[in-house]
Amino acid sequence: MDIISIAGIVFALVLFALAIVSGGSPGGFIDVPSILIVIGGTVATTMISSSTVQLASAIGVISRVFKAKKFSASEIIPTIITFAEKARREGLLALEDASSEVTEPFLKSGLQLVVDGTDPELVQDILETDLSFLETRHRDGQNLLSKMSDAAPAMGMIGTLIGLIQMLSKLDDPAAIGPGMAVALLTTFYGAFLANVVLIPFKNKLEVRNAEEILMKEVIIEGLLSIQAGNNPRIIEEKLKAFLPPSVRKGAKSAEEELAEEGA
């Protein structure tokens, strides 16, 4: 579970709750019809503009907002270097047993292709195709959230117009104008809140997660191709660290450091 995402949402809700409570009665910010218009309208317009397959795929991608990442590029490099050293000492076939212990699916499938003696160009083509479709699936999730973040404020405005029309129909009752205006404005508030506090941050988080995963898999592809080419493990390590920012590069452990820690 990604604690940062959950903590951010809770923090935002607490701040808004404090602002509402300090300014008066919180009951005035609750209006069920307004909530139904904003949430129901946002979901409905998203369903209309998306296919069933896109929705199913995107919902799975969106759930990644709350999932902690299992691996990063800097964490996967020592594993690849360990495989490179093993392949250099014992040959590529020696990696078959090691591949059974790999838990990262992309690395596991790529390592198996290398062990099976698949042509390097074909290995690269297969892995890059997998990576390309991964980006497409992630983009569908981001696009879905983008559609929803556009629809939420629009639904809020529609709800406000409905409320204003209902208020104007009661102009003969001055006492009803103030409460009616407050309710009309609530839908705009709900739409802006849903878009800017939930949907847009979710989309931005998915973009960050997508960039991190793509980087990790590009490192895996480069590492496996280098192992297959029989490159020196030290050269492979330096080549893979070049994918990382300088600040992260310094903190990335070498294969020797990993083995030393395991033996300690």
Written as H for each helix and E for each strand, in order along the chain, the element string is HHHHHHHHHHH
Taken from the alpha-carbon principal axes, the silhouette is: elongated
* Alpha-beta classification: mainly alpha
Overall radius of gyration: 26 Å
Helical content (DSSP H or I, runs of 4+): over 70%
Strand percentage, roughly? under 5%
Number of domains: 2
The average pLDDT is 84
Largest sheet: none
Q: Segments where pLDDT lies below 50 for 5+ residues?
A: 258-264
Please count the beta strands (DSSP E, at least 2 residues each).
0
Question: What is the tally of helical segments?
Answer: 11
> Cα distance, first to last residue?
30 Å
Structure description:
The chain has 264 residues and is mostly helical. It folds into two domains: 1-27; 31-75 and 118-263, no CATH class. The chain contains eleven helices and no strands. The two termini are 30 Å apart.
Outline of the structure:
The protein has helices at residues 3-23, 32-48, 52-62, 73-90, 95-99, 105-115, 120-168, 177-228, 233-241, 246-251, 255-263. By secondary structure, the protein is mainly α. It has two domains: 1-27; 31-75 and 118-263, no CATH class.
